[in-house]
Amino acid sequence: MKLTIAITLLTTAMVDGFTVGPGVTRMQTSMSATAVDEQDPKVVVTKKNERLRMFKSDKFHRKGFKDVREEVESRMENQFQSELVKDLTSNEFMVEKDGVRVHLAKDFGFCWGVERSIALAYEAVDHFPEKTVHITNELIHNPEVNDRLEGMDVKFIEKLGEGKKNFETVKDGDVVILPAFGASFEEMNLLDKKNVEVVDTTCPWVSKVWNTVDTHQRKGLTSVIHGKYDHEETVATTSFCEEYICVKNMKEAEMVADYILNGGDKEAFMKYFAKATSEGFDPDTMLEKLGLANQTTMYKKETRAIGQMLQKTMMKKFGPVEVTSRYMEFDTICDATQERQDAVHDLVVNSEKLGLDFILVVGGWDSSNTAHLLEIPHHAGIRSFHINRAECIGADNTITHRTVDGEIVTEKFIEDLSKDVVMGVTSGASTPDAAVQDSLSSIFFLKKLGNDE
Fold first, then answer.
1. HEC profile for 398-425?
2. Alpha carbon distance 230, 24 (integer Å)
3. Which of 7, 187, 201, 239 is the most exposed place for a label (fewest CB within 10 A)?
4. Which helix (H) or strand (E) holds 34?
5. What is the pTM of this model?
6. Residue 168 designated active-site
7. Which entry of 123, 187, 233, 243 is annotated as an active-site residue?
């Protein structure tokens, strides 16, 4: 895979990623989602407007640094590219070696948003060599990339628990990187008041979601966010909302729809969604006008199904004439996420024809988009494993992997080392090709050991 580093300024990009832990109300700021300018009462100040104001500061960097770009591009190619993966893509996504036949998914690995985020972070470190560089969270959900940043002496801001962070370590004149998930309005507002250089690596697809919830607010809609309420991206998105409820799947969306149509036990409803709603949320009054948004790494098909179900719910509740003013949705699923899901689906559909023994998914264990890749073969009944590093594959023919339930387990890997192995492989959008190569190399070595015995 050719590594294309795109560092562009998108005027719609937004930032958000304040880590709020389960059961903790987000830190309040001096303004709500909308407020009135005290100097000019006719002017409505929104979080989006404030964010755009921050972007104009000469201490807010979103385009990268050309003076170090060539060196960064070269370093990233050396660190993240893979000759083996190049061989796979140039040979119809298949290679055979040491008794192992590998079928690579047609779309896999780094998306351009992740490449852009890494490039911006690397450039920030090189451009400010004399300054202390901090980052508000993991840059992306990949352990190797984050380890490299630590090796470059980037300081990960300490998490204090209950969603709080220790920003006291950020001193006057320091540099602060905002990760690919973005940073919340609260964090941006705090950093705006400090004399620091801010380097924004937020993925523009994430920004698209924030623009969507801003539209919801202007139209008086409650945002229904299809996502995991404690995921960094969703935490970020909700910081730009005034009224919201998060649903992680169709089951929870159906609970919301049922309450809209039939009412019910308000106390039980709020107890269930206590960590997934805005402060002071009232389901009796705040579910009358809805706008759908989503965490960019969720299943696109599920988001669409939830949207159709909510639209039908509002139509049934309020009638077809009013549905257009009471329900709104936009497609905010990242293209890269969908393409990788479709590619794994193709492997699953053709698994019998290809004779696959299993499918290996490589990517961070806390990566939402990678976890969803595992679910596709798992639900199809195909043996599958999600590993975060090559070291998960042991020389004793064991594999340590993350299950679809989030449990980390170790078990026997290749069932019969005396026979040829046929496998499928893919990787998450935050996984470098080099990680795939290292993982496959471990399997080749393991199989070769089995053949020599």
1. EEEEECCCCCEEEEECCCCCCCCEEEEE
2. 10
3. 7
4. strand 34-36
5. 0.84
6. no
7. 233
